[in-house]
Amino acid sequence: MNRSFTLLVNRAAGSGDPLAAAARVERILRESGARVETVAPSGPAEGKRALAQAVIRGDVVVAVGGDGTVSALAGEVARLGGILGVIPAGRGNDFARMLGLPTDPHAVATILLDEEPAETDLISTTAPDGTSRVVAGSIYAGIDAVVADRVARGHWLPRSWQYPMNGLYALATFRPTRLTVVIDGTERTFKAACVTVANSAYYGSGMRIAPEASIDDGHLDIVVIEAFGRLDMIRALPKVYGGTHVDLPTVHTFRGRSITLSAEPAILYGGDGETEGMVGSGAVLIDVVPAAVQILR
């Protein structure tokens, strides 16, 4: 199978050396006879131009970075009708984990060269001010968003400690909110600590926040965690890594296609490692986009 590739590298990806990760896979692809171009855009506009040119040439567009990089490229690749590949090179790599992608460069190159593209769902989200974007993995609000925001802004902790330590901080300082969730027209209200609307089962560098989520079922999984005792919440935190937190009576799971979130008082929200803003009385709209993009996996 003759494929050509454009590797789009996010030099600011949160951990490791994405340029080095790209170079290792590029060498293997070239040795196989593939044509490869590597681009490290200086900004979003340059990245969009490189992506569009790659799709016009018929290249597989390969995201080299973390979850934010995949999200930034997936929507554009879907819109232009291209094919997306992923080289995991970020801090969390949770969407790559959901795709079942390895980290070994030879194994990644084999997938890029030999696997058939598979239809994969994405998330469309619209902020209270009307701006919209596409997200691959999940949208979250409350404690989850505080953790992701702190991780993105502070890299002084060792990588393996960043999510757990910031999670403890967020749990120790959170204030409950009156969260309203509307799922396919049905409204529910909670005194909540956080909510996640998930396409991918994973977030936070390996936490199985939505263990039943699927990236090709045309639905999103919603996980609401009620506010309960701080100490009990801290004790329950390790359960999220195995996905067993969903068995707690204070955790509620749902499935749907169209979701709106609002909260009083307003809480921080984000998606795939990027802080979006505040969700308050003005609702955030979240919809699944079924079979939106073709991904090599």
Automatic annotation (TrEMBL):
It comes from Arthrobacter rhombi. The keyword Glycoprotein does not apply. SUPFAM superfamilies: NAD kinase/diacylglycerol kinase-like. Keywords: ATP-binding, Kinase, Lipid biosynthesis, Lipid metabolism, Nucleotide-binding, Phospholipid biosynthesis, Phospholipid metabolism, Transferase. This is Transcription regulator [contains diacylglycerol kinase catalytic domain]. Residues 1-129 form the DAGKc domain. SMART domains: DAGKc. It comes from the Bacteria. The lineage of its organism: Bacteria, Bacillati, Actinomycetota, Actinomycetes, Micrococcales. InterPro entries: ATP-NAD_kinase_N, Diacylglycerol_kinase_cat_dom, Lipid_Phosphate_FormReg, NAD/diacylglycerol_kinase_sf, YegS/DAGK_C. Belongs to the diacylglycerol/lipid kinase family. GO terms for molecular function: ATP binding; ATP-dependent diacylglycerol kinase activity. Its cofactor is Mg(2+). It holds the Pfam family DAGK_cat. GO terms for biological process: phospholipid biosynthetic process. GO terms for cellular component: plasma membrane.
